[in-house]
Structures are given as C-alpha cells and as structure tokens.
Amino acid sequence: MLSSLVKEHQAKQAVRKESQDIKRKEAVDAANELTNALVEHLNVGVAQAYLNQKKLDAEAKQLHQSAIVFSKQTSQWLSLIDNFNCALKELGDVENWTRTIENDMRNITTTLEYAYKVTQKS
After folding, report:
1. How far apart are CA 89 and CA 51, in angstroms?
2. How far apart (Å, rounded) are the C-alpha atoms in residues 94 and 88?
3. What is the band of 2 on the pLDDT scale with cuts at 50, 70, 90?
4. Which Pfam family, any one, appears in the UniProt record (predicted)?
5. What is the pTM of this model?
C-alpha cells in the first residue's frame, strides 16, 4: 500500500512536471513572440528614423552645395557692381573733363573775340 502511494505520488509528480514543462515551453514561446513583436515594432521606428536621417543628410548636402553656388553668384554680382560703379565714376570724370574743356574753349573764344575787336578798333 505504501509503495502504491509512492508510485501514485510519483505518477502525479510526473504529470505535474510534464504539465509544468508544457506551460514553461508555452511561456517561453509567448515571451519569444512578444520579444519579436516588440523588436519588430521598434525596428520599424528605427528604420523610419534612419531613412529620415538619410534624407536630412542628403538635403543638408544639397543645401550646402546651393549655398556655395549662391556665394559664388554673390561674389560675381559684387564684382559686376564694382565694375559698374567704376565705369560710372569714369563717366563722371569724363563729363567733368568735357565741361572744363568747354569752359576753357569759351574763355579762349571770348578772349579771341575781344582781341579781334580791339584789333579792329585800332
């Protein structure tokens, strides 16, 4: 009778152990599935962040190139404006020079007319 109780007890323990093993495997599988689902969900976010970063890097490079081109254009514009200002100054100098010559020629003409009149009278 005692041996039958021990056998019965051992049989119950074996059934419980088998049941616990099954539940442990189910729990491990469920944990693995949960972990995989969480990692997959996080990977989607990480992948999106990575793609966004790549886009930002590409746009930053493009912006840098555009800034370089704009800087070169600005330098060219400044050079053109400087040349234009110099040309305007030269035109102003030429205009002033022509006025001076015109005034000198008027003075010479007036002097010559006066000298001619004086010579005619005498």
Report:
1. 56
2. 10
3. confident
4. GCN5L1
5. 0.50
How far, in Å, CA of 23 to CA of 13, rounded?
Answer: 15
25's tokens = 């495997």
**Residue 116 DSSP label:** H
Tokens of 72: 């070169």
Record the tokens describing residue 19, joined without a space: 């049941």
- Whole-number Cα distances in Å, 95 to 48, 83, 89, 104, 117: 69, 18, 10, 14, 33
7's tokens: 């056998």
